[in-house]
Amino acid sequence: MKYFSLVALGSLSLSAASALSQDLSSNLQAMKNSYAASGNIVVVDKNIIVIEPKMPAPLCALPKFQDGKTTWSFYTFPLASITVPLADVDESLILENRVFSSPDAPQSYKPGDVGETTMVVIASKPGKQFHTLIYDLQKFARLSPGPHSSKDYDQAPDDTEAFGLTFADPAAARTFAAALRNAVIATSTRAANP
After folding, report:
1. Spatial contact of 179 and 34, defined as CB atoms under 8 Å apart
2. What is the DSSP letter of 150?
3. Helical H runs in 39-194?
4. Domain boundaries, the chain
5. Reading across the β-sheet that carries 156-160, which strands appear in turn?
6. For 25, 31, 67, 194, which has the most beta carbons within 10 A of its beta carbon?
7. For the segment 153-185, what is each residue's pLDDT rounded down to a tens digit?
8. pTM for the full model?
């Protein structure tokens, strides 16, 4: 009887591991599909992805309401690639914001307007950083059409604790954020139950 219990327990563990692996794979695929219009995602292994946003990165404007006035925060993430170990992502800090990517947004904004772009912000766990390749956005914008070397726009390695990804489709942004959150949780669960 003990033998049967051990075999059943072993089978149950294998089934759970298989389900976690399938869940992680489906979440990685959902991330790739939902991000396709904004860039590319390469799965290095089941624990690490590389995100390659389309260049150039847009300038995103986020209105803030303070003391009865509207002020603006501006963000741009000139990233050629971001290496993201899923275990290093803080799933509680995957945030979505509606932002404006039009350069005249502060002048044309009327109270109640909603940005046409969704920015998903991803932060690392304390003490962790994401390895990135950044570039000079102004140099990139001045390039003529045709192939160019990464030296032409000063691509260089850098590390960051957080970054933003932009989506023209809010539904794709929500799908991406949910799939990333689920992939991070599945990775943590798998690491805790090898």
Report:
1. yes
2. G
3. 105-108, 137-142, 170-192
4. 2-192
5. 39-45, 48-53, 79-85, 130-134, 156-160
6. 31
7. 889 999 999 999 999 999 999 999 999 999 999
8. 0.83
